Amino acid sequence: MSEDAARLAAEAAARRSYGRLVAYLAARTRDIAAAEDALADAFQAALTAWPAGGVPDSPEAWLLTTARRRLLDGWRHARVRDAAADTLRLIGDEFADDEAIDAFPDERLKLMFVCAHPAIAPAARAPLMLQTVLGLDAARIAAAFLVAPATLGQRLVRAKSRIREAGIAFEVPPPAQWRERLDDVLEAVYAAYGSGWDDVAGTDPRRRGLAAEALSLARLLTQLLPDEPEPLGLLALLAFCQSRAAARRDAAGDYVPLDRQDPARWDHALRQEAEAALLRAAPMRRLGAYQLEAALQSAHTQRALGAPVAPAAIVALYDGLVALHPSLGARVGRAVALAAAQGPVVALAALDAIATDDLAVVAAYQPYWAARADVLVRDGRVAEARGAYERALGLSEDEAVRRFLLQRLRSLP
Amino acid sequence: MDYMLMFYESADDQACQNDERAGPYWAGWMAYIGAMQQAGLMKAGEGLQPPAMATTLRGAGSRRQVQDGPYADTKEQLGGFVVLDLPSLDAALDWAARAPCAANGAVEVRPVMPPPPGLPG
């Protein structure tokens, strides 16, 4: 067998099972970094062994056995005699080399709970999950999260040693902590997608370029926790946002806001996946912030497809959302919904209240200024609208969005 | 902590200053600078005339050279800078990403050096 074929087989195994293999090894040793290193060694060994001996029937079992031996060798070398080494030795011959991946317990849910554990710094949680569950490389994560690669590397190393040293358990949390811990997991998955989804004006480009990865984490969660409604809400939310991604640019590369998008350019399979997830969550009768966000996305989508949606119904959804999770995006969205339902004066009062509460954050939050400018135009306050559009323009990261806001600015009387 | 953001522009972006794209070009930069000022972060900042206007003095032991043009002739050229008072490098990178030159050029972010120890601050 050729080296190319061996490499392809190893890559396919990595795509299929990287997270499951890391989770399986780490759940037994609580040492994620050692599990990743051992697995990397195993992949390297496969590139030497497979061209000569052929790809084994179950590449995953081969990789797991090899990685486990590496771990044991490492410990023997360091003369570690701890419980983890004993456990690993015990489970050593649990699986034969020809067993399929389905024979191993799937520990990815435990791994996700560990990555989003309260003892881990919030900024490290999503990157840690992307690296350990999906095997994404650190350079790509650093670019998507707009942090210095060295900073991200330190955060990941610190998080992994904290898990090992604090002895954070690989377990599905007990009922008493369930809700809070699940919220942390969902938040980390959402953070992998980006922070732009809650922007009704749609001009905040903070989508991280990891949309497909975030969606697969959300899908994985709904498979591992089929009876929980909020993972379904999160999946619906991300799928709705992503279904419209292509329609946000026209042929010239210019930015197109939702109300002027061509629904023919939406990804309708993804949109239907979103609607279906939301429908599956509904009978569970436990409403949460992600389901509400997804319901809002559904309403915006329906309206763009020509269905009449009462403005007051949108305000009611935002009221629920702000009560559950008063994020800046939700509060700005509510103010925009108020403009449609009750007029610009009420909406401006709501926007003023947000700025009073949190001036420093608002000063760097582009969607606030884009929304404020639109509402001021509706109220005929052109001079103030101009100032707000300029703030939004100055806070934009995206060339196409800058062009779009500049056009708005120029169309003012 | 103070961070300097140095804005490096591609030659094409810099050409916008004087051709038919000047309107949107300046509007973008003025809005960006304005957003930093209104957020109360800006401690200093200037735009620079194009690299063709530069004169570089170079030392070579006892001899010295004066030549027209910038110190390093690179694809992107320094077009200006700001100094911002920010809590972290992460925040500095957030602001760097908003610079109009971030799409086709580069933004270098560097912490400003504190006064050396022992010197009156």
Estimate the helix proportion of chain A, in percent. Answer: 55-70%
Mean pLDDT level of chain A: 89
The number of distinct β-strands of chain A equals 0
Number of strands of chain B: 6
Percent of residues in helices of chain B comes to 25-40%
Task: Give the DSSP E fraction of chain A (strand runs of 2 or more residues).
Answer: under 5%
Return Rg of chain B in Å.
17 Å
Unreliable sequence segments of chain A: none
Whole-number total of structural domains of chain A: 3
Radius of gyration of chain A from CA coordinates: 24 Å
Oligomer: heterodimer
Describe the structure using short key phrases.
heterodimer, A: 413 residues, mainly alpha, 3 domains, 0% strand, elongated, B: 121 residues, alpha+beta, Alpha-Beta Plaits, four-stranded antiparallel beta sheet, 3 helices, 6 strands, 36% strand, flat
Describe what is shown at a glance.
The complex is a heterodimer of chains A (413) and B (121). Chain A has 413 residues and is an all-alpha fold.
Task: Report on this structure.
The complex is a heterodimer of chains A (413) and B (121). Chain A has 413 residues and is mostly helical. Chain A has helices at 3-29, 32-53, 59-78, 83-91, 108-115, 122-134, 138-145, 149-165, 175-193, 211-224, 229-243, 268-281, 289-304, 311-324, 328-342, 344-357, 359-362, 366-378, 382-394, 399-410. In chain A, α1 packs across α3. The longest helix of chain A is centred in the N-terminal third of the chain and has 27 residues, at 3-29. Chain A starts with a helix and ends with a helix. The model of chain A has no long low-confidence stretch (mean pLDDT 89). Chain B has 121 residues and is α+β, with helices and mostly antiparallel strands. Chain B has a single domain (2-111), classed as Dimeric alpha+beta barrel (Alpha-Beta Plaits), CATH 3.30.70. Helices cover 26% and strands 36% of the residues of chain B. Chain B has three helices and six strands; from the N terminus they run βααββββαβ. In chain B, the strands form two sheets. Chain B has a four-stranded antiparallel β-sheet. In chain B, a hairpin with a 2-residue loop joins β3 and β4. Chain B starts with a strand and ends in a 10-residue tail after the last strand. At the A-B interface, α19 and α20 of A face α2 and α3 of B.
